[in-house]
């Protein structure tokens, strides 16, 4: 009896081991490519190529470590790629031409990982993360500039300063530095609002939204008013982005004919200009790329640029639709901001957001997300080249990830936005980039036949919604860690794995400002 039992165990184990080697073959298929794939770079076939590569990386690390100086950073520039997951950066290398490419900021000597969860959610949004990476405190999903004692949508929760979280923009201003920001979203959108606003809901960008939520807009002040009236917003020397509608009354129209959203009769753009004029400051409001080009930036104290009724266009669309002369790019806006802020001898804090990487991912427009990442990297390069490594810390990171992944053993010469050159078990091709959820579901599946037949021509179209497993009209954020890349004084602080809310402390210590100035071990 016992013998027979042992024998059957033996049989079972043979069967199991057979199964697992079959599994292994299935997991790592031999080539089933339908065409020849030439080697990208023949030097890669030699070990020496990779040895040289390692030598160069090592030399750069040694040089960066030797260059560590204990002088504080005069300027800090923080770049935020909204939704720029690690996968987005990896895919951008291929989009630039090949896996061996480096996205500009990947050359920075120090890289770390930040944990993006918020107090009440594993997967965060751009509001609670903004409080974390600009103010140093994690809050509740959907809230900005307040701690987690305040629930989202609480009308009164942010009306007193009891639960307010101060931002690094304020620490810079208190230290006599200037502060400003650039974004490709509305200037009242969640990410930049973390610099100057305290609100229990990210949607309260104008008084109409506050009323619609059942709150009194005279008590619960909307984000646009906070930007124009409250001390940190009033003190910002540079405000560049989109979103004119939140500044104008519903009965008036902006320069391009779009109606305002406000009910209180205010024109906050006029109020902003009047406030600066009352202080005899040189202040300019512009709404077009041409208007910006006419401003004497070297003699400008305050610059407000609202280049669109809502968000600025996707960078890829700006180029495809030949709007380069009408609409400024993120890198042009970054250069203008630095030119104005560099006038302060005590230095500055600048926040630059590539906002539309996130919006493209929500629509499962993988190609647009990569195009906006390319422009974002260009803005980082412009900033790094306009400033000195000796006195300017540049930090590049993201607020949260997205669900896009890179799959299927594609050959090196396959375009990342295309399909894998081997078929799935249903005999159909599948895309290299795909999402866990989102509107791309409708391209992926049809009710009757299962998966749809896709080809490279379709998937490389800019309007193609990349494959998604679960139907959702807006793809969700991802909960994975995001990367932090740093260059300049004290860049070494940014290596390792830490809470996203630690980032302001690291930047502030590097610049010796705010509550983290002069902190000693
Ligand atoms: C502002 O717009 C509202 C409609 O939302 C209108 O009732 C009001 O009269 C307007 N105020 C001014 C001063 O134009
Ligand atoms: C602005 O300039 C005017 C005229 O030169 C002067 O009367 C006024 O006091 C100045 N205001 C401020 C805030 O400096
Ligand atoms: Zn988002």
UniProtKB/TrEMBL annotation:
Q: What does the UniProt entry say about where the protein is found?
A: Cell membrane
Report membrane topology: Lipid-anchor; GPI-anchor
Q: Which GO terms describe its molecular function?
A: alkaline phosphatase activity; metal ion binding
Q: Which EC class is the enzyme in?
A: hydrolase
Family affiliation = Belongs to the alkaline phosphatase family.
Q: Record's InterPro entries? A: Alkaline_phosphatase, Alkaline_phosphatase_core_sf
The signal peptide stretch is 1-22
Q: What is the lineage of its organism?
A: Eukaryota, Metazoa, Ecdysozoa, Arthropoda, Hexapoda
Record: residues binding Mg(2+) = 82, 189, 191
Residues that hold Zn(2+) 2 according to the record: 82, 358, 362, 399-400, 477
User: Which EC numbers does the record give?
Assistant: 3.1.3.1
Instruction: Quote the cofactor binding remark.
Output: Binds 1 Mg(2+) ion.
Q: Which cofactor does it need?
A: Mg(2+); Zn(2+)
Where does the record place the catalytic residues? 126
Chief location category: membrane
Identify the CDD domains for this entry. ALP
- Looking at the record's lineage, which domain of life comes first? Eukaryota
Provide one Gene Ontology cellular component.
side of membrane
The residues that hold Zn(2+) 1 are 353
Q: Which UniProt keywords apply?
A: Cell membrane, Glycoprotein, GPI-anchor, Hydrolase, Lipoprotein, Magnesium, Membrane, Metal-binding, Signal, Zinc
Q: What is this protein called?
A: alkaline phosphatase
């Amino acid at each position: 009896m016992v013998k027979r039992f042992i024998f059957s165990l033996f049989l079972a184990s043979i069967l199991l081991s057979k199964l697992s080697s079959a599994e292994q073959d299935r997991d790592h298929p031999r080539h089933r490519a339908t065409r020849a794939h030439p080697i990208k770079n023949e030097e890669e076939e030699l070990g020496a190529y990779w040895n040289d590569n390692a030598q160069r990386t090592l030399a750069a690390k040694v040089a960066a470590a030797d260059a560590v100086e204990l002088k504080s950073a005069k300027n800090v520039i923080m770049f935020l790629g909204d939704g720029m997951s690690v996968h987005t950066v990896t895919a951008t290398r291929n989009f630039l031409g090949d896996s061996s490419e480096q996205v500009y900021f990947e050359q920075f000597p120090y890289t770390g990982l930040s944990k993006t969860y918020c107090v009440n959610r594993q997967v965060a949004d751009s509001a609670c993360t903004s409080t974390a990476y600009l103010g140093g405190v994690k809050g509740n999903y959907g809230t900005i500039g307040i701690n987690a004692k305040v629930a989202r949508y609480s009308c009164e929760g942010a009306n007193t300063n009891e639960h307010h979280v101060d931002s690094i923009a304020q620490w810079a201003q208190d230290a006599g530095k200037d502060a400003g920001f650039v974004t490709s979203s509305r200037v009242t959108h969640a990410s930049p609002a973390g610099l100057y606003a305290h609100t229990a809901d990210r949607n309260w960008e104008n008084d109409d939204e506050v009323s619609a939520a059942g709150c009194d807009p005279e008590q619960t002040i909307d984000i646009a008013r906070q930007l124009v009236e409250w001390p940190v917003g009033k003190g910002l020397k540079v405000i560049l982005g989109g979103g004119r509608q939140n500044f104008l009354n519903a009965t008036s129209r902006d320069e391009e004919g779009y109606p305002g959203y406000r009910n209180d009769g205010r024109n906050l753009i006029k109020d902003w200009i009047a406030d600066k004029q009352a202080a005899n400051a040189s202040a300019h409001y512009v709404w077009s790329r041409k208007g910006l080009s006419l401003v004497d930036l070297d003699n400008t104290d305050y610059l407000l640029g609202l280049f669109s009724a809502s968000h600025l266009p996707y960078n890829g669309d700006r180029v495809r639709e030949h709007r380069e002369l009408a609409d400024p790019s993120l890198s042009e806006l970054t250069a203008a901001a630095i030119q104005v802020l560099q006038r302060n001898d005590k230095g500055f804090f600048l926040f630059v957001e590539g906002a539309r990487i996130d919006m493209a991912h929500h629509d499962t427009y993988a190609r647009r997300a990569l195009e906006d990442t390319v422009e974002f990297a260009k803005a980082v390069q412009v900033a790094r080249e306009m400033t000195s490594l000796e006195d300017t810390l540049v930090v590049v990171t993201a607020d949260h990830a997205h669900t896009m992944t890179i799959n299927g053993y594609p050959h090196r010469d396959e375009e990342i936005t295309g399909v894998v050159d081997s078929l799935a078990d249903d005999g159909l091709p599948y895309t290299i980039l795909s999402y866990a959820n989102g509107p791309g579901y409708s391209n992926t599946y049809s009710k009757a036949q299962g998966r749809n037949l896709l080809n490279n021509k379709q998937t490389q179209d800019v309007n193609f919604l990349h494959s998604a497993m679960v139907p959702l009209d807006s793809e969700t954020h991802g909960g994975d860690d995001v990367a932090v890349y740093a260059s300049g004084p004290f860049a070494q602080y940014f290596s390792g794995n830490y809470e996203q809310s630690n980032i302001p402390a690291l930047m502030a210590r590097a610049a010796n400002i705010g509550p983290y100035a002069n902190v000693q071990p």
